[in-house]
Design brief:
heterodimer, A: mainly beta, four-stranded antiparallel β-sheet, B: mainly beta, five-stranded antiparallel β-sheet, 0% helix
């Protein structure tokens, strides 16, 4: 069992609202990545943070933003929610330069 | 950018049979290829990985092969058991970019019947 924890586990929002998802990385890890997994699909890379700065981003609009804190906890913020944002959001932590990522159990977001 | 295709989308086998899942990738710069197992409602878990300087890697009942020239890699599970039933994802990335961006395939739902 990994030490990556995410909260909340489930969330229901309505279109146009804003949401904040949280992740606590495994001890000793200095990178945190966020992925979106739509139903029946593989996870898609949103962005990665290292030393509190975004250092890589996938094909997601600016309304997807994030923060990484000095204690390596992290937030994913999504503004102006759309129905297609409904998905499982996964946080993954690792060590820069290492190959393995450790995933959390995810937050299931439903946008109505 | 990188694109990973995965086949088949579903695979049903009898307990004890072998299962093979295949993936192709597009970016020749990719040099790391992990495989994840995801059970229903749970997190993806790394089960095996391979780097581009290796052609094959084995860990008990699972093995991965890589053909860099053809840009494809495969997961092999022997002596399948019901607990192997899950969705399996392949992924690819270039470890030299300075950040870990995994590009995943669309997944294979493996069902092992007793």
């Amino acid at each position: 069992e990994t030490g990556v924890t995410q909260s909340p586990t489930h969330l229901i929002k309505t279109r146009g609202q804003q949401v904040t998802l949280r992740c606590s990385s495994q001890s000793g890890h200095n990178t945190v990545s966020w992925y979106q997994q739509a139903l029946g699909q593989g996870p898609q890379f949103i962005f990665q943070y290292y030393r509190e700065e975004e250092n890589g981003r996938g094909n997601f609009p600016p309304r997807f933003s994030g923060l990484q804190f000095p204690n390596y906890s992290s937030e994913l913020n999504v503004n102006a929610l759309e129905l297609d944002d409904s998905a499982l959001y996964l946080c993954a932590s690792g060590v820069r330069g290492d190959r393995e990522l450790f995933f959390g159990s995810g937050t299931q977001l439903s946008v109505l | 950018g990188e694109n990973v295709e995965q086949h088949p989308s579903t695979l049903s086998v009898q307990e004890g049979d072998s299962a093979v899942i295949k993936c192709t990738y597009s970016d020749s710069a990719s040099n790391y290829f992990p495989w994840y197992k995801q059970e229903l409602g749970k997190r993806p878990q790394l089960i095996i990985d391979i780097r581009s300087n290796v052609g094959e890697k084995k860990d008990q009942r699972i093995a991965v092969t890589l053909n860099k020239t053809a840009k494809h890699f495969s997961l092999h599970i022997t002596e399948t058991q019901p607990e192997d039933s899950a969705v399996y994802f392949c992924a690819a990335t270039n470890l030299n970019t300075g950040f870990q961006k995994l590009v995943f395939g669309t997944g294979t739902r493996l069902l092992v019947s007793p």
